[in-house]
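G., the chain you wanted modeled:
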Amino acid sequence: MVDEQYAEQDVYVDMISRLRGLEGQYNLLRDRLLVINQNLILQHKKLSGNINIVDEDLKKMKSELFEITETLRYVVKELGQYASKGDIRVLEKYINLWNPMKFVTEEEVIELIKKHKKRG
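Predicted structure as tokens:
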């Protein structure tokens, strides 16, 4: 009977020892989980901040791209109003044909008239 009591007591002691071991492991796992959660929250905050920065940069880039596109449209529109190479060549032919370098000024005409009157 005494042996049975000691045996039962050994079983209880063994169970209590195992239970304490399990409680220790549970507490350790709980603490690790708490640290992991805290790290996860910090990483989430950092990631959210980085996403916000990237989002702002993306908005700026879209705005700049829109401005560039509008400027290019304006430039293309303005370029359409300039004379083409062919138009310039036609004008060059007319100018060479008329030869404006041989035109006379009003003063030269008056002087030529005066000279002509003196001769005549």
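The chain has two domains: 1-82, 84-120.

Shout if anything looks off.
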